[in-house]
Every structure is written in structure tokens, then in C-alpha cells.
Amino acid sequence: MRERNKYWNSPEKEAVLLYGPLPSLAANTSGTKGKIDPLCVRVVDPSLFTVPYCEALVGALEEAGAEVKLVGRPPRKGETRPRIPFEPRFYRRSDTLSRRIGKPGMALKALEHCLDATSFALSALPKGAIAHFQWLPFPLADSVALRLCRRRGPVVVTVHDTKPFNGTPTSKLQLHGFTAALGLADRLIVHTWTGLEHLVASGLDRARIRCIPHGPLGGFEDVPPPPETGPMTLVAFGKIRHYKGIDVLIEALAALSREERKALKVIVAGEPMMDIAPLQARVAATGLGGTIEWRLGHLGEETMRDLFTEAGGFVFPYREIEASGVLFLVQGLGRWMIASRLGAFAETISDGESGRLVAAEDVPALTEALRECVRFRPRPSGAVSVQGWDDIAEATLATYREALLQWQATHRGKAASA
């Protein structure tokens, strides 16, 4: 049994997650006494940003009795098809084209998004089904789709990042209308209490927001314990974006002495989503070529397994974050973690026990956390606090039923007044 999230049983959880309170999971939405209807759910992740999360969520919801399907784009070359019920409905023509020809391709992808989102709402969403959007990549177009979806059933949106794309969108159009689009949902789900407060501060209705933690992302339980000899290896992995603070990490490493650097190896692994030439130039200028190793490109499952086997710890020097999929991918590996005191990092890592938390963009503090690795080669004395998927599915289903009952009442009222 994984340790329950330290906030899960808090008074805030009673006031926010159970705000209402939520209806019973055994509630009958058909009106037929003694019969429990399975919920029909379409989980929508157009760009497949969070496949491991969606696989875990859909699997848990299915085990709890719901009829669930993931809807997104076709898998790209080298990617594995999601291992859950899956329907590729988005970007079937433009996805590979947009990656080859840049801005013209992105414009075509935006147009296809408008068409695909509308088509999903009009023809692919069963009557009475819950449309559970994981991302709203084009809020102005998504607002239209959400309105159309609500004609057929309730809409739930999980807000993985309360600041869209953590401030690094491909296009500024991905920012316009974001809060207004969220306001159309029957229920919003966030993973952290700070995320909830951010949404409330933006003007969204607290009564419609549920805080349901992110769950563990497994598949690497057979990775051996961390190496005990040689330089301590720290890994920063995932798609390389500005908000992930690799430049901050470089400056913190540069502040270490020559001898301290020799005792550390830092692997930066992942697909660059920004120009990394300035970062590589800075590594060369500060003499960190023997400390930092770049492993650039898509990280498949076996590549990650090899990477995690090498890791003595992980470092997440982020500028912005709510819930980090990479954190929940490695939380069970028994490695020391250095992370910014933000979002899920702050709410799941126990400072000094499962890792070290530092202020975002605080180079001296990050340097001290790295120096601690040099001197003590720390190992976690406590587990990262993570909620299990059974509880997450229970809370998510309860949120669905609450949204469905409210949607049904609203539509019955409209029908009666017509």
C-alpha cells in the first residue's frame, strides 16, 4: 500500500474535495430503482501530452466499473499505442506536417484542431457521456467544443497547469481565452492546493473545483538500487523547456569548486523544445563539460530504464509547475530528489527526508543542495507521499456523478420551461 498523500485527509480536503457534498458512488443516474448504470466517459488528450497519466487514470476508472476511452492523436513513429481503449481522432493529417515545416504546419494543425474538436463534440461523444478534457491546447476553439459537448453531457476539465504550458506555449493563441474556457466546465480538477487557489484567484468558482492528487506512474519497479561508488549521478529528464530551469542548474553547478564538480555527474536527457545552443555554450564557458552530459532526443521506455538505473538522484530546478509527470514516474525508485518548492514537489517531497526543496530560481540554495550530494551522497529516509489510483478513481467518479446529476437537473429544468 502506497503512503497516502499527506494532504488527502486534511480539513481542506473535506472543505474542497467534498464541497457539496459529493453524491454516493452508487448513485443511480437512470432513475431505475435498484440499478446502477456504469458511467460513460471520454478522456480527451488531443496531443497525447500525458499518456502515462491517462493510461493509469483510465485503467483505474475501468476497474471501478466505468466505460472509458481515451481520445487523442495517432501515435508518432517510435511511440507505443496507449495500452487502454483508445480512439485517434485529432491531428490525423497535420501532426507530422507541423513538426516538419514549422509555423505553416502549426497553422494547419490549429485549423485541424478546430475541426476535430467540433467533430468530436457533435459525432463522437455519446449522449449523456462525460467529456473529461485533460488539456485545452487552443482555448478559443476549445470553448466552442465545450459548449457543444455540454449539449450532450457534462464537461470536466483537469487543469494540469494553472498557468498554461507553464508560460512557454508554442503560440500566444494557446493562452487567449484559457480562463473563460475553464469557466464553461461543470467541474474542474486540480492536483494541488496551490493550483486550486490559483484558479480561485483567477475568478473561477471554488464550488466547482475539486483537488484530486496525481497518482504514481509505474513500470520501473525492477530498477536496481542506486550506485554507491563513483561520482553521484543526478538526472534531469523530460522535454527540455525554459520553465524547467536547466539554465539555473548550470549556474548552480558553476558555483561548485573544481573538486566538488569531480564528485558529481549530471545527465540532462530529453527532447529539446527550445534552442539549447545558449545552454551548451554556457556549459563550455563555465568549464562544466566534464560534469554535464547531454542525452538529447525522445526517451523511450528502455532508454528511461537505463537512465534510471544510472541515477543516484533526480534534480528538478523548475521555474513553474503544478503537477509533474516526471516526478510521479520516479517517485518509487528510492532516489534522492532536489526540486523547486512548487506545486506537487512541495506537496509530496518531505524536505530532508525524501529529498531537498529549494526556492525556484535560487541559485545559491540549489548550489548548497548539490553540495550536499557531494558531501553525503544522501538516500531518502522516507517515501514520497503519493495517493493511490484506487482512491483517485473513487474521487474522480464521485466528481463525475456530481457533475452528471447537476447537468441532468439543469437540462430537465430547461425542458420543463420550454
From TrEMBL:
GO molecular function: glycosyltransferase activity
Keyword Transferase: yes
Alphabetized SUPFAM superfamilies for the sequence: UDP-Glycosyltransferase/glycogen phosphorylase (SSF53756)
Superkingdom, natural source: Bacteria
Pfam families on file: Glyco_trans_1_4, Glyco_transf_4
Keywords for this protein: Glycosyltransferase, Transferase
InterPro entries hit by this protein: Glyco_trans_4-like_N
Domain Glycosyltransferase subfamily 4-like N-terminal: 53-215
Segments passing through the bilayer: none
Name of this protein: Glycosyltransferase
Species: Teichococcus oryzae
Source lineage: Bacteria, Pseudomonadati, Pseudomonadota, Alphaproteobacteria, Acetobacterales
